[in-house]
Write a structure and sequence with these properties.
Layout lengths: L1 H41 L5 E3 L1 E3 L2 E4 L2 E17 L4 E6 L6 E2 L4 E5 L2 H30 L4 H26 L2 E3 L4 E3 L9 E2 L4 E18 L11 E5 L7 E8 L9 E9 L10 E7 L3 E8 L4 E3 L2 E9 L2 H4 L3 H4 L2 H14 L4 H25 L2 H6 L5 E14 L2 E6 L6 E3 L11 E4 L9 H7 L1
Parallel strand pairs: 1-22
Antiparallel strand pairs: 2-21, 3-16, 4-11, 4-15, 5-7, 5-10, 6-9, 7-8, 9-11, 11-14, 12-13, 12-15, 13-14, 16-20, 17-18, 18-19, 18-21, 19-20, 19-22
Length: about 450
């Protein structure tokens, strides 16, 4: 009987011990997870470093931008008018030639012989005409003989002119002064009418053809200034609009524009792609920002404005410091209730001295940090503001709605920022400018 009671007691004790151990493990895990959650919930993310700019009204030069193609004001691909074998090529690639300069000579031996023979016949007919006129004056010649001689002389002269024109077709001349390209024929080659020989381009003045939407046609007029370049924001060439097509293409709803640009240095080449901008009258008091400050999303375009943090956000640790006071009061109240002799308190006081000595270095280390904390700038936070963008030009964008003059706007790093986030402003590097320009300024 006693053994059975002992066995039951042992089993109950083991079960109780097991319940205590399992309960302790579960309670420890619960308290640990709860503590971790509270720690991360109260932990603030570190302040992000951003660059900013101050929004202020400025002068704005609007414009109409388009894609254009460069062509020479006078440019043509020269071809031959008649058949023949190439006898001589009188130019080389990229040579500047004058107006009416001979560029190509075909074999013209047969045509020259025919011309000489016809000239002799024309001289004979002219002599016969003079003789018939003299005989008619003396009254011994008939009028029909005179008319026949006069017709023969006229036909011979016309035939000479014809053969002279045929002979000139054996030569290819420049219709205007310019620069010739690479020859497309060789000496001894047989050419048929219409065979391309070389291109001739007058590179001193170029024309630019481009198209703009019909909505912007009212903004353009003859004589307006245009700027054009090969890419990027720089447009070093200037010209003027010379023609506006009076008809809008019904399929594309675009209107063709033609402008002329001086090309004294020869940097523009016919057929080249250029970016064109038609300059419009300047406007004043326009709010603009760098295009890097504007972020586009499915919900609209927005920017981040830097604002001082509110007092509740700047010092969130004050409410957490209040519970420390009751603990100090409790310890003070516990001292009178302690009726033990002073000698019994000595070991506790001696044990507390090393802890107090160990805490002194930390207090000393904390003292130098006080001036730094007192000199800190006010905390800054972000405010997400949705705006309505307008026109764009040279890396800047016009803000029509949502922005006020004097707002400090973030210009870079928006993809890692969020509303209400703490930030630190550092404008030593401006991301809107290239690294080379910043190095030159420094």
């Amino acid at each position: 009987m006693f053994k059975r009671i002992l066995r039951i007691f042992i089993i109950v004790l083991v079960l109780a011990l097991l319940v205590v151990v399992v309960g302790g493990i579960v309670g420890f895990n619960f308290l640990r997870d709860n503590g971790i959650k509270q720690y991360f919930a109260s932990m603030k993310p570190p302040a992000a470093t951003v660059s900013t700019t101050i929004a202020k009204p400025s002068a704005w030069t609007p414009g109409v931008e388009a894609i254009g193609t460069v062509r020479a004001v006078r440019g043509v691909d020269l071809t031959v008018e008649t058949t023949g074998i190439v006898k001589d090529i009188l130019f080389h690639a990229n040579q500047k030639v004058a107006d009416n300069a001979v560029l190509l000579q075909l074999d013209d031996a047969v045509e020259r012989a025919d011309l000489d023979a016809q000239k002799a016949q024309a001289a004979l007919d002219q002599t016969s005409l003079a003789r018939a006129i003299e005989l008619t004056r003396r009254g011994v010649g008939s009028d029909s003989t005179l008319d026949t001689a006069r017709a023969a002389a006229s036909a011979s002269a016309s035939q000479v002119t014809k053969l002279q024109a045929v002979l000139e077709q054996k030569q290819l001349t420049a219709p205007f002064g310019g620069t010739v390209g690479i020859p497309k024929i060789d000496i001894g080659q047989y050419l048929a009418p219409g065979t391309a020989v070389v291109t001739l381009q007058d590179l001193d003045t170029m024309r630019v053809d481009f198209s703009v939407p019909e909505q912007q046609l009212a903004l353009l007029k003859i004589g307006q200034t245009i700027r054009l370049g090969f890419g990027g924001e720089e447009r070093p060439f200037a010209g003027t609009i010379r023609g506006i097509d009076p008809k809008i293409d019904s399929s594309s709803r675009l209107v063709n524009i033609r402008a002329e640009v001086a090309n004294p240095d020869g940097k523009l080449t016919p057929g080249q792609f250029v970016q064109v901008r038609v300059e419009l009258p300047e406007e004043q008091n326009v709010l603009t920002l760098p295009q890097t400050a504007l972020t586009t999303s499915l919900y609209g375009d927005y920017i981040f404005v830097v604002q001082p943090a509110k007092p509740a956000e700047a010092a969130p640790a004050k409410p957490e410091e209040k519970p420390a006071a009751p603990s100090a009061d409790k310890s003070a109240e516990a001292k009178p209730a302690d009726t033990k002799p002073a000698d019994a308190m000595k070991p506790a006081a001696d044990a507390a001295k090393p802890a107090a000595d160990a805490a002194k270095p930390t207090d000393k280390a904390a003292d130098p940090a006080k001036p730094a904390a007192e000199g800190d700038k006010p905390a800054l936070v972000l405010s997400q503001v949705f705006v309505k963008p307008g026109r764009r030009n040279q890396g800047m964008v016009e803000i029509v709605e949502g922005l006020k003059a004097g707002d400090e706007v973030v210009t870079a790093g928006q993809n890692r920022l969020f509303n209400g986030m703490s930030v630190v402003v550092d404008n030593t590097i401006d991301p809107t400018k290239s690294a080379n320009k910043q190095a030159e300024q420094q």
